[in-house]
Design goal:
Structural class: alpha+beta
Strand content: 25-35%
Distance between the termini: 44 Å
Number of domains: 3
Mean pLDDT: 87
Low-confidence stretches: 479-484
């Protein structure tokens, strides 16, 4: 369906920038756009009839012009999005809903106009073009070869369903922005990491231990994500990265449990696997997100309301899921290095106010005991790791969605970006690097201990709600603890 754009009294430069942006958007989206370059009197009938989808107004309006526009909007069947200079926006604050009015704090460049079109007109069920995957495949091979001089052999890209897989090495990096969110997972093996250590650090294979191998994979994954973002930027998508996870062990069950469309990009390095799983979903971008992106601001405030909410939601979810009471212990610093664990369940979400992470860790025996309370099955059935991962994946999903719901009471709006699980009956190394500030909150359930990690990167709250100056001076916080 064609969309209609109105540019009110544009300057010569803005008109040229807008037409270039429209042509580019039509090429990458396949959507037809109609553009009006008119004054308010010429456009009045179209506005009142609800035929305008986006209005751009950069030239300062006289009060009489603003009154005519406001009158048209009040009589309109539907409110269009209005991308306005700050002066013009002030004149419309009492008339236009906050989710339809964007105060443009920079110039109306081609890049900015294109970003508005991309974000506000792309349908929420949009599917990525096959061209993107071909471009990403080539970029992955190039980045690995540039760093290691090793050559990856690609196989056919396939759309896949999320499933549990047994892994020895797994890394995840999440992304969101411009109406797209998801994760990039790298699944490989110890032999590949040792080859990376040989070619990147010039170390013999026996000196590439697990912690060093995890650092190498994290860096390679970071670079792959960088070239993927660069390739998608060429097609009009600007993405931010957020959460990073790395697991390494003899064997563990791994699963990305978030909703979305997943594609497997398989590679081989000699006879060893180096597979990429790209999962994404789409969401409707708000005008507030466009304003925040223009500001390019992301300071850190540990909102005490969200910190307390994380603890409350953890307690209530454990009680409702397993009929157990969890006793809170003192808050401690978040992890700064890989550590041994047997079960990790992660929920990550973001929005225009920032992003947060909830992660639950426990030992295998505790997971068995809690799962037994849910299923009421015989012990031999509880040995099935797939059943365990299903039970606790549901738990962390429930916890995250409840957090999102209750956070709205404090003005936050979050979209789920990622949820996943890694589980084994023997210890594996794990590191969850959450953006912003991160703390850990131990809970005692009977004779067992469950660790909740909460990470938050946001500057939405005012400093009066910032709990970080207090919690960072509590016992258990090391001097090197800092925001990532």
């Amino acid at each position: 369906m064609a969309k209609t754009i109105l540019i009110l009294r544009p300057s010569k430069e803005m008109a040229a920038a807008a037409m270039t942006a429209v042509e580019r958007f039509q090429k990458v989206s396949g959507m037809e756009l109609t553009v009006y370059r008119q004054n308010i009197n010429q456009a009045a009938d179209a506005i009142e009839a609800g035929r305008i989808d986006i209005i751009f107004t950069a030239t300062t309006m006289e009060r009489s012009e603003a009154n005519v526009l406001i009158g048209c909007l009040e009589r309109s069947k539907t409110f269009p999005y209005i991308i306005s200079s700050p002066d013009n926006a002030e004149k419309m604050l009492t008339t236009v809903p906050v989710d339809r009015l964007c105060k443009a704090k920079n110039d109306f460049s081609m890049e900015f106009i294109f970003a508005c079109l991309r974000n506000l007109l792309t349908p929420s069920n949009y599917k990525l073009d096959a061209r993107y995957f071909k471009s990403i495949l080539t970029s992955v091979m190039n980045v690995v070869h540039r760093n290691t001089q090793l050559k990856l052999t690609p196989a056919q890209v396939n759309e896949v369903k999320a499933e549990e897989t047994t892994e020895t090495i797994a890394a995840v990096m999440t992304f969101f922005g411009d109406g797209v969110y998801g994760s990039l997972s790298v699944l490989t093996c110890d032999a590949v990491l040792k080859k990376f250590g040989e070619t990147i650090l010039f170390l013999p294979p026996d000196q590439v231990d697990r912690e060093l191998g995890m650092d190498l994979l994290a860096e390679i994954t970071n670079q792959i994500m960088g070239v993927m973002r660069s390739e998608l930027r060429d097609f009009g998508w600007t993405l931010k990265t957020s959460l990073q996870i790395v697991h390494c062990g003899d064997h563990f069950l791994n699963k990305d449990t978030a909703p979305g469309t997943s594609f497997k990009l398989p590679f081989r390095l000699d006879n060893d696997k180096f597979d990429l799983i790209l999962r994404y979903s789409t969401y409707r971008v708000s005008v507030q997100e466009i304003e925040i992106n223009m500001d390019n601001r992301m300071a850190h405030i540990m909102d005490v309301r969200l910190l307390n909410l994380a603890m409350d939601v953890c307690q209530s979810t454990l009680r409702s899921s397993f009929e157990v009471d969890a006793r809170r212990q003192a808050i401690v610093a978040g992890p700064t290095k890989p550590h041994a664990t047997e079960a990790v369940y992660v929920f990550h979400a973001g929005g225009w106010q920032g992003e947060y992470t909830l992660a639950i860790e426990m030992d295998y025996e505790t997971a068995q005991l809690l799962a037994k309370r849910v299923k009421r099955q015989a012990d031999e059935n509880l040995e099935d790791s797939e059943e365990q991962i299903r039970v606790f994946s549901n738990m962390i999903q429930k916890m995250g969605l409840e957090f999102n719901r209750l956070a709205k009471q404090h003005g936050y709006s979050f979209e789920q970006i990622y949820s996943g699980a890694a589980f084994s009956d023997s210890a594996f190394m794990s590191f969850v690097r959450s953006p912003g500030y991160c703390v850990q909150m131990p809970f005692v359930v009977g004779a067992s201990r469950i660790m909740l990690s909460f990470g938050l990167r946001s500057d939405f709250a005012t400093p009066v709600f910032d709990a970080w100056p207090l919690v960072s001076t509590m016992p258990g916080f090391s001097p090197e603890t800092a925001a990532s």
